[in-house]
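Just scan this pair:

***
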Amino acid sequence: MSAFTRLPDLALRTYGGSVVAANDESFAEREALIRPGPPEFRPHTFGAKGQVYDGWETRRRREPGHDWAIVRLGLPGVIRGVVVDTAWFKGNYPPYASVEACEAEGHPAPDELDGWVEIVPRSPLSGDAAHEFAVTGERRFTHVRLNIFPDGGVARLRVHGEVVPDPAFLDGLTVDLAALENGGLVVACSNEFYSSPNNVIAPGPARNQSEGWETARRRDGGNDWLVVALAGPGTVAVAELDTSNLLFNAPGWAAVSGVDARKASPDDRDAWFPLLPRTRLQPDTRHRFRLDSDRTVTHARLDVYPDGGMARLRLLGRLTT
């Protein structure tokens, strides 16, 4: 598995992504391309259009050309890699695919998009396989277009990268400085046995335990933690620690601390200062705390005691630069 697959999937439906257009979806709907989770398959499940597939599938093309689908990224940013997954498509996969990307302001209609650039050249595909393509370049993109040649089925399209929000939009607002959609990223974590720590800063509420961060049971007397690089230097006014859906595996206590990495290394534990002292938590509860610190932070550390899960971490404040 490529290193870029550990980065957030910018296209994911639960992050606000949308398949806004496709030239054909005769056999299976385009929206499946960005569903969370691995593709599913049940053999001998036939509908009016044939075998049911958890993916996007076009008709057999009898004329020149190729099929395509356009995805609006839920989290615009710099793309580091793309995964084209043909899982379960064994006799009906496209033999080739390419990916293009563009950046657009506002909320354009699909036919208003232009300035497309190729980020994955036309490349061969095989059936029932996840194909990983690294992407180079530092441009910010808001949309991608998957081209398949000439037709066929693709189960999932993953677009991994680094979130880059519009800085002009955030300027002067009270925002969630830790949010993935605003450019926050978990950069260190003690344990991610059950689920990714970046889940804790994902958009929207967690619908179940799998959409939060959960650690293994700790037996060594220590505690678990994660570190978030914030959207930028800022002051935090409100900390929200949400243990929703965690009925019997929420932490007993938690604390939040901060550091300004422009003045001291986050690796220096003595440089961290408290934002929220160690505080008792309840299961399945959205906890909100007003903070009295006016110190600028670039990174925040969440400590949970001794272990357990957290559905969401929100750090509301203002950017200072």
Remarks:
- The chain is about 0% helix and 45% strand.
- The longest strand covers residues 67-85.
- Helices lie at 167-170.
